[in-house]
Known about the structure:
Largest sheet of chain A: 9 strands, mixed
Helix content of chain A: 10-25%
Number of helices of chain A: 6
Number of domains of chain A: 1
Number of strands of chain A: 13
Order of helices and strands of chain A: EHEEEHEHEHEEEEEEHEH
Oligomer: homodimer
CATH architecture of chain A: 3-Layer(aba) Sandwich
Radius of gyration of chain A: 19 Å
Amino acid sequence: MENQRPLILVSNDDGIVAKGISELIKFLRPLGEVVVMAPDKARSGTGCALTTGEPIHYSLVRKDVGLTVYKCSGNPADCVKLAFETVLDRKPDLVVGGINHGDNSATNVHYSGTMGVVIEGCLKGVPSIGFSLCSHEPDANFTAAGPYVRDIARLVLEKGLPALTCLNVNFPDTQELKGVKICRQTKGQWTSEWENFAHRGDNHYYWLTGSFVDEDADQEDTDHWALANGYVAITPTTVDVTAYGMIDELKTWF
Amino acid sequence: MENQRPLILVSNDDGIVAKGISELIKFLRPLGEVVVMAPDKARSGTGCALTTGEPIHYSLVRKDVGLTVYKCSGNPADCVKLAFETVLDRKPDLVVGGINHGDNSATNVHYSGTMGVVIEGCLKGVPSIGFSLCSHEPDANFTAAGPYVRDIARLVLEKGLPALTCLNVNFPDTQELKGVKICRQTKGQWTSEWENFAHRGDNHYYWLTGSFVDEDADQEDTDHWALANGYVAITPTTVDVTAYGMIDELKTWF
């Protein structure tokens, strides 16, 4: 079937109605056949979480030439797993997550549902890319990101990605992008992560918040540096999390 | 405070009432002061997922000499984050997740709430270990694992772990353990992941299931090989997921 157009599976974690996924679909449609399986509501911060304690459900939202859209009651990683076994008639050529409303650089990769989509695609052996914009605004402006999204997706379709490797792409919130930087994950820690409040006399309620303390300040090879300086940050990301450098040392312990 | 006993934070993803966490607490108590902050119900397969859309709540369950137990309405990673800012009076010396009822070897590390505990501890700069047993039985037998849990925890307290590195320890479901193997993460894929059923005439309901296809069969350095051959599998695991090997290649793309 050499004349088939590339098959592109799209999902996200902000949910099917988010502007970011609509924009992503618009940017990707010229590149191939797009199938969307996205959460029916926001599932931010769910990482690679799966739904194990209850069944999930999907349904068709819209079918157009070259575009089919489904919504699903599961998490982002569930959406990818379910699409592979239900709505896709062949293995996709590309899995894309996003465009996320919010930064998924640095250690956020571990919590990101957008990257949950991408890690799942990568684990299934398909070249996979996550796109995120450093703005949580529902009406964020994705215009400048568009040509980069399309170029990066086209390059990955042409060249592929190494086994067990995916891309985490973050855009600064500006319309004047300076180009692309290839980065490593910034080291750092979230601090002051909880906002405490009382409810009906019980003061043990906490809402997640926090600020990120960068431990790699001024390191020009990090994704944070790229974003702070107006560049598109592309961080190649592995799903083989073995700490190979520690294997020999650890063998001496036993 | 050189005479303080080590402070050990414990959590899991099977929830506070699981046998595995009770056994873990029992094994660890001789090593130091144990504080438990565990989910109030099972949160299996939640990976590093955070609770972002609603507040979480914690409460004291039990206080004894050298042991304080709290339950929390959040996910495993929430539990660790919350404990650091609420119930711990100093930075812990060790964060431990488990003992999980079920295998967290191979690519399961990405979905594991047990490893969500461990990754969170590691991101906070504390030596962290996850323990899992290859049995989902509520009444699984953790007896043989006990001495290994204690020895591994003691070694990590003594020697520490490199920055950004934690341990993923899995036990085969046997009482005749052959010793320890230091491993890498087995490559492979989950397949046949969904069980379809109909509900009220709608046949788009799916429940997660699946079988793992090992792509590293007979590779003696993998965690699957160790488990299949009766060894305790210790896989050193990194939270820096940058695919360093692809950076130079990727730079040639742009």
